[in-house]
Amino acid sequence: MTALRKTKIALTPKTAPFAIRAERASDVVAREALLDACFGDNRHMRSCQRLRDGRAPAEGLSLSAVREGRLVGTVRLWHVSAGGIPALMLGPLAVEASSRQLGLGAALMDHALAAAKARGHRAVILLGDAPYYARFGFSAARTGELSLPGAFERERLLGLEFCDGALDGAWGMITATGAPLPKTKAVRGRKAKALLMPRVA
């Protein structure tokens, strides 16, 4: 089991503090604009998006980062079955370019993982850059027999166990298990100029 890392944020006169809180309905337009800017117009075609389409995020595990009254970061976790083993899928994680030097991405990760562990979840999976996410305890050690719908890079499929052995025997296709969303049109925000760093699909 990997201990959660605590993020230290150093504030200088040139940096403004940020707050991480539960996502609100009023965040949706800004969140969609941030995701469009970070991932591009084709983000809805990504493999992990197929696990999110038509599903609600896991309860209490949608977080927003706010700086100077505006949304500058977002992360969500989703219920999935990892070859029959209950787990969470983390993503997308997005941070506005002007805020990434504040350590906001790491703070969002720490908050999200701590909240997931506190709610009794046993494992989290994501598709992301291994060198970055290793600092949070993610590795490919338990995900080698798992697959995603559609094309993906094997070395970027990573897992984190809150409990030793939580992903033992995980094999096969990762599938969505979250509650279905009501059939409504998705709210789309206007595009913003932002960059994602680090990137998680």
Distance between the termini: 24 Å
Main beta sheet: strand number and arrangement?
A: 9 strands, mixed
Number of discrete domains: 1
Number-wise, the strands total 9
Give helix and strand order, one letter per element, not per position: EHHEEEEHEHEEE
Name the quaternary structure.
single chain
Query: What's the number of helices?
Result: 4
Mind telling me the CATH superfamily name?
Answer: Gcn5-related N-acetyltransferase (GNAT)
- Look up the CATH topology: Aminopeptidase
Folded structure, characterized:
It comes from Bradyrhizobium lablabi. By secondary structure, this protein is α+β, with helices and mostly antiparallel strands. Strands 1, 2, 3, 4, 5, 6, 7, 8 and 9 form a nine-stranded mixed beta sheet that branches. The chain has one domain: Gcn5-related N-acetyltransferase (GNAT) (Aminopeptidase), CATH 3.40.630.30. The protein has helices at residues 28-39, 49-52, 104-118, 130-133, and strands at residues 18-22, 62-67, 70-82, 85-90, 94-95, 123-127, 146-147, 157-161, 172-176. Mean pLDDT is 86; it is low at 7-14 and 185-198. Strand 2 (62-67) and strand 3 (70-82) form a beta hairpin.
